[in-house]
Design a protein that fits this description.
The complex is a heterodimer of chains A (about 300) and B (about 350).
Chain A lengths: L4 H12 L8 H11 L1 H23 L15 H4 L19 H37 L1 H16 L2 H11 L4 H28 L2 H9 L3 H37 L11 H10 L7 H28 L5
Chain B lengths: L6 E12 L11 E13 L4 E5 L6 H8 L6 E6 L10 H8 L2 E4 L13 H12 L5 H14 L16 H13 L5 E5 L7 H18 L2 E5 L3 H7 L2 E6 L2 E7 H6 L4 H8 L10 H4 L28 H5 L10 E2 L9 H12 L1
Parallel strand pairs in B: 3-7, 3-8, 5-6, 6-7
Antiparallel strand pairs in B: 1-2, 1-4, 8-9, 9-10
Classes of the chains: A mainly alpha (about 300), B alpha/beta (about 350).
Chain lengths: ~300, ~350
Amino acid sequence: MVIQQDKMQSLATRMSQDEVKGRSPWADARKRFLRNKAAMTGLIILIGVALFALLGNQFAQWSNEDLDFTVMGQVATMGMPSFENGHYFGTDDLGRDLFARTVQGTQISLMVGIVGAAIAVIVGTLYGATAGYVGGRTDQIMMRAVDILMSIPYMFVLILLLVMFGRSIAMLFLGIGLISWLDMSRIVRGQTLSLKNREFIEAARATGVPSWKIIIRHIVPNLLGLVAVYATLLVPLMILTESFISFLGLGVQEPLTSWGALISEGAGTMNYGTLWQLAFPLFFFVITLFGFFFVGDGLRDALDPKDR
Amino acid sequence: MMTKPLLDVRDLRVTFRIHREGAMPWSAPLPLHAVGGVDFTLNPGETLGVVGESGCGKSTLARALIGLVPAEGQAEWIDGRDLIGLSPRQMMKYRSDIQMVFQDPLASLNPRMTVGQIIAEPLRTHHPGLKSAEVKDRVKAIMEKVGLLPNQINRYPHEFSGGQCQRIGIARALIVEPKLIICDEPVSALDVSIQAQVINLLIRLQKELGLALVFIAHDLSVVKHISDRVMVLYLGKVMEIGSSADLFADPQHPYTQALLSAVPVPDPAHDLAGSVVPLSGDLPSPMNPPSGCVFRTRCPRAQAACAEQVPALLGQDHRTACHFPGPLTDAEIARARNTEAA
């Protein structure tokens, strides 16, 4: 027999099947990402750090505000990391539990990074997509405004803001949010310009789909890959910025703390034999940055396979 | 008594303003006449083929008709409304009557949307009140009509072949039940066997639904196959327009004759070099078109009068824009060949 009965049968059922499920570009990207070992390692590290930030306080034996009077004044000899007295990461200079402090610092630093990147994603994407799609004079004005904002030395402005309006976490978010979306809007605008003249956008315009719907429905979903990559690379930059400011002593204020502040304190007491004060915050700082960069690279490879 | 045309285009012009490279931002931009005064009529249910070489304004004409590029002149729809210069709100009513099929099948579909979403988009735009189930039913019905399996509704464009993608594009155009579909080189990105399928699909749908088509192509054999009438464009101007049979059998304009002579003949014994009318030089820049007849710089029959006066589009059904229409003589072809050789 030329025709194989079972094959024809399976073909027939396949043809009459109810609604074959499609394989979306996102599903493809997810598969590529899951196969990327470095990126998966990065992701696991990040999940670990996030769990540490969320659940760490459950395991801490000390509050981050309490001073341990038994070790005060003899931190170098008594405040070492130990399970006996419950200071898993040792204590800081004042006798506060470094484990609880690191948990707190992780929370703040991750929050700064994620909020900064979220502002960049939302504001930058919409701003850049609008400028690129509308084009013409609107585009000129919007992008020149970005140029002007970019030309201001932001660190200087940020420091001035913090000095003038007082050091507060809200001010820090505001300052970081103000600068973070500029690069994003430029990247998004460039990508939008190249998308704008694709035929599917023309088809939507010819049908009479309103501009804002074209931006939301056709442009933004096609930008999301790029935005996701850039956002994951932006989070560590935000963390670095915040850490730098905190290292200068201008960032978050006591009793709050962040990785930058903890590293700064730890670095200050390096010579007194209390290296753990530097080592633990630095360890979390470094693995988080590595994690984000690996995940960002993995996302880029997964979402943009043409570039390899 | 003639029937009222579906679309009556008179003196349609599209002018782009080009800023010179390195010029001061306030210096006046140069005008580029992409379409320089095109007249034609299109009857309901009729196919008008538009041919011409690259850069002659075919696609710009299509985009002007559908309102994607600003145009001047007049394009009267069957209900007496001039489509040129309508506000977006006024134009909305006509957008469901005029749909477009694009050249690159894959690029004309959003890669992040499923086929169902893509086809439903015009429907959802023009009939926002429809229920999802109803939209889905209509999408499936139209998919069946264009020869796609309705159960593929949740697939993504990259999972389809080029020909299938073009069918999706056609389904998207058909779903709002238009009266006119503008096909901008719908088959030039497909390979030959698929071209035939898509063209036959278009012809079948046209018969079933009584559609009018504006069919843009540079493949003359395709145009001959599908068109009732054919319009030849050169540098944004109509050179010749007439019924398909008439124009292919008895071309009057020297440019049309040169175009037709260059069509490959599937016969190894055919002497292409001996039959083709060579055109010397390139298409002149549309920013600086020749005076008088735009074709005179390459025309084997050009004379002094051609540089002075723009030829009018004359004739009843078969109209030609040429001061000296008629078949090229052997002597003229020989002369053209000599200039080419020199």
